[in-house]
Amino acid sequence: MAKESKKVKAEGKPLYTIPGLSTEQGATIAALLQDRLNALTDLHLTLKHVHWNVVGPHFIAVHEMLDPQVDAVREMADTTAERIATLGLSPWGTPGALVADRSWEDYSIGRAGAIEHLGALDLVYAGVIEDHRNAIAATDDLDLVTQDMLIGQSSQLEQFHWFVRAHLETAGGELSTQGATTEVAAAGRAGVKRKSA
Ligand SMILES: [Fe+2]
Q1: 4 pLDDT tier (thresholds 50, 70, 90)
Q2: Is the pLDDT of residue 14 over 70?
Q3: For residue 115, how far is its CA from the centre of ligand 1 (angstroms)?
Q4: How far apart are CA 127 and CA 191, in angstroms?
Q5: CA of 2 to the centre of ligand 1 (A)
Q6: How do residues 186-197 score in pLDDT, each as one tens digit?
Q7: Rounded to whole angstroms, how far apart are CA atoms 170 and 149?
Q8: Where are the alpha helices (DSSP H) in the chain?
């Protein structure tokens, strides 16, 4: 087993932090960012899972649409982790810690049609984006540099969400997944809509 690092983990108090912030503020921001790091790591792995499991008539369009999203979200995770390190704490990037810390369930769909996966991804993106906006609000009086990073990420995430939703939308602007609260339900509604269209 590797020797344990003496560096303080993201949830503790740093021994130093960014000049102009107290170590308490550094700890608060890092804890908030650790949750965003978990969400972004989870998201880029989930997007790859869909890239591998999508089947059916729209396979190649969705398969190829997802890879640039994986790359961009992976970059966001990297920037977020490095911000935690900049704050004087240790970003935690291992799968076990992610699963233990996260407040959401694992993506629940395996091999399925493109529209079904996109229906489920609508909910996945909605969750990440809402939590990112909460983190933006929480950094308002705390750290505008961190907030700026989160705003930049949100802009990209919200555009990727639109890419997903554009497949689920009617010409009248109605979303097939409207009202769904689980990925399975959203996938079902998206699939039914397509078959009846
Ligand atoms: Fe691939």
Answers
A1: low
A2: yes
A3: 19
A4: 21
A5: 32
A6: 999 998 755 544
A7: 33
A8: 23-53, 59-86, 95-101, 114-138, 144-166, 183-196
